[in-house]
Design brief:
The chain is mostly helical. The protein is built from 30 helices and nine strands. The radius of gyration is 40 Å and the shape is elongated.
Length: 687
């Protein structure tokens, strides 16, 4: 009907218009031109427009098989987008260096060396950028490796070098398990192939916001969980830039297998980049200390908070919601009880309002450390200077008869310790030193030396076993000592009618005389009186003796709590374990530093004893030395006629040498441990 109403002229015009529209098709939808029917050689001067004559055609693709019915491989390039990208002035053949002619084979290799070009741009010497990238083709077979043919003008690695090296070592650079001919992810899978915009301003923000979608192209399940998380929801729904995206946790290029330790450690550390306070408090727990040492068998951030579906604590779906947190604990602690619910996983000693128990105990331990060290270090310094002054003035008491620098193993000696006590002391010393090195390595996990020492110990799990064996050994010696003492008191009374004098001269219980001796000692320090003389046990020896009782109670009980948390959590609140962690570490620090400074000074480092006193290894001491040091006991034994019972011959030269060697070895170990402990303490203070 319409055509009947048109005049002849109108029909002619309409026909011409139809013909015109049929040929005037936009370039991106037009078929490839006939100009490329015959092959032409590709050179470094071949421009991008020549390539776009085919690849600029919208929908341009080729079959992947031998027939047109096979799946097609899309080869279309959005020319407008490409010309706005950072590569707009880069010709196609600068990247696709394997193209030799046009039209080319459809099965051409897609070997694009992103790094090769960027390497040149990162060099200080810009002359390197004049290299003909087309001639220097096939620079790498790893798609993004650093080619040997690219000159280096500086020995320092650029950021590009570092990123490339990280990528090549990552899981993305490994062959895909479903298709070994392809990599898991290439540069262009994440950054795009042709529409790469400059990473500044809004483009950078856009890349960050869209990165979860980019990663989700392969990791769809993780993206689904992330989208609903406290991190993903603000990014996906509101375009927020602050919440964590994939690269914040996994890094951009140094991506490892999430089931392996490097990924677990990296992700945990990266949590601290945003959550600094929580990461710091986590690092003070046993969980965090072990992770900081480089081991992953304890709880990490994502173990409790879910790796991708992280939610707020008050969200019913959160792993740390009050209705689910016990189940979360039971993932590791299979027999965890309700007591775990009141444990502070991020407790700190600096917040009284939230963690009063930890704050109070911490301040008590600080005061205890200050008072003990102030008194005994002061005592040692005063003693050293007073005794040195006597030596400098030539008032050296005849306590060690020496000839040619060696002790004269002649004359009479006095028995101080029996073989049983010497063995007990040696085992106790080894156990304590073992406890110190295995324990303080965890306590000062952030120190520079701790990871190396832990590796030498065989790893955190092996060190924990060694620590517990040493603890059981220490406890066995401690309680065995008490058993032997009380058994002797009982049998002496039963068999011989000898009653033990609890506050007599042979007792290690404190008595008023100890106070008088201490006052006399300080008078001597300040030259207000003569040097005091002592009975069998001095006041500082009694302190050394009773210190392990305090340590056994504090360190031992707290250690048991931490060793068997599920048992004790059945009838104790969870915050007890936070307190136990504090006192266990602080008291261990006190014990280690006291032993290797004050105790070593009293026994070995003061002028009269330096460099080593072997009485604890030989069991006896020269009579002259005994008379000088234990004048009160000597006079009493002479008066009662009992001195002869304790007199023995001099130890053999061999025993004396072995004793000195053993003494030096133990002192050396103790001093090394002291240095490590103090370095760890200082590093913690400065951190």
């Amino acid at each position: 009907m319409i055509m009947r109403r048109l005049s002849l002229g109108g029909a002619v015009v309409l026909g011409l218009l139809l013909i015109l529209f049929s040929v005037a098709v936009p370039a991106e939808t037009a078929p490839p031109p006939h100009s490329l029917v015959e092959a032409i050689e590709v050179t470094a001067t071949t421009d991008t427009d020549t390539c776009l004559e085919c690849h600029g055609y919208k929908g341009f693709s080729v079959p992947t098989g031998k027939t047109g019915g096979s799946p097609k491989r899309a080869l279309h390039v959005q020319s407008k987008a490409f010309k706005k990208s950072v590569h707009a002035k880069v010709s196609c053949v600068s990247c696709h260096v394997d193209i030799k002619q046009m039209p080319h084979e459809q099965e051409v290799e897609r070997t694009v060396d992103c790094v090769g070009c960027h390497k040149i741009l990162n060099e200080k010497d810009r002359e390197a950028a004049k290299i003909d990238m087309h001639v220097a083709k096939n620079l790498t077979h790893s798609m993004v490796g650093l080619p040997a043919t690219v000159p280096t003008t500086t020995g320092q690695k650029s950021k590009l070098d570092t990123n490339a090296a990280h990528y090549l070592a990552s899981i993305h650079a490994q062959p895909n398990k479903d298709n070994p001919d392809k990599l898991n992810a290439t540069c262009w899978d994440c950054h795009g192939a042709h529409k790469i915009l400059e990473m500044t301003g809004s483009n950078k923000d856009s890349f960050r916001i869209n990165s979860p979608e980019t990663c989700g192209g392969c990791h769809d399940e993780q993206l689904k969980a992330y989208t609903q998380s406290v991190h993903g929801a603000p990014v996906k729904r509101y375009g927020k830039l602050e919440p964590a995206v994939c690269s914040d946790c996994h890094t951009a290029h140094k991506i490892s297998v999430v089931e392996e330790d490097p990924a677990k450690l990296t992700i945990t550390e990266n949590c601290g980049s945003c959550h600094e306070d929580y990461y710091k408090s986590y690092s003070e727990t046993y969980h965090g200390q072990i992770v900081n040492l480089g081991y992953t068998h304890t709880a990490k951030c994502h173990d409790c908070h879910a790796p991708h579906a992280t939610r707020k604590a008050d969200d019913p779906l959160s792993m740390i919601h009050e209705s689910k947190i016990l189940n979360t604990c039971q993932e590791c602690h299979k027999d965890a009880t309700e007591g775990y619910l009141t444990f502070y996983p991020h407790g700190t000693t600096h917040d009284y309002e939230r963690f009063p128990e930890m704050w109070i105990v911490s301040k008590f331990m600080i005061v205890l450390l200050f008072v003990v060290f102030l008194f005994f270090w002061g005592h040692s310094l005063l003693w050293y200077f007073r005794e040195k002054k006597e030596f400098d003035n030539g008032h050296q008491p005849t306590i060690r008869l020496e000839q040619n620098g060696e002790p004269m193993l002649q004359g009479q000696y006095v028995t101080r310790f029996t073989k049983g006590w010497m063995i007990a002391h040696l085992v106790l010393a080894i156990a304590v030193m073992t406890l110190v090195i295995t324990g303080t390595t965890v306590l000062f996990a952030n120190s520079f030396w701790a990871p190396l020492v832990m590796k030498l110990l065989g790893g955190a799990e092996v060190a924990a076993i060694i620590h517990r064996i040493a603890a059981v050994t220490f406890a066995s010696i401690f309680f065995g000592h008490l058993y032997v003492i009380f058994r002797k008191i009982y049998t002496d009374n039963r068999d011989y009618g000898i009653k033990f004098e609890w506050f007599g001269p042979n007792s290690l219980l404190p008595r008023f005389q100890d106070g008088r001796d201490m006052v006399a000692m300080f008078n001597w320090f300040f030259e207000k009186g003569p040097r005091p003389v002592f009975d069998r046990w001095t006041y500082w020896e009694k302190f050394d003796y009773w210190a392990p009782f305090w340590g056994m109670f504090i360190i031992g009980c707290s250690g048991l709590l931490l060793w068997f948390p599920s048992f004790f959590a059945g009838f104790m609140p969870g915050w007890v374990f936070n307190v136990a962690t504090i006192v266990h570490g602080e008291e261990a620090f006190l014990a280690a530093v006291f032993l290797f400074t004050v105790h070593f000074f009293n026994c070995h480092f003061r002028p009269e004893k330096f460099p080593v006193d072997v009485v604890m290894f030989t069991g006896s001491m020269p009579l002259d030395e005994f008379k000088h040091e234990r004048t009160v006991e000597y006079d009493r034994l002479v008066e009662t006629g009992e001195l002869d019972k304790y007199l023995v011959g001099a130890p053999s030269a061999r025993l004396n040498q072995y004793s000195r060697n053993l003494g030096f070895a133990l002192i050396a170990v103790g001093v090394i441990e002291l240095i490590l402990v103090l370095l760890g303490f200082i590093q913690d203070i400065l951190a």
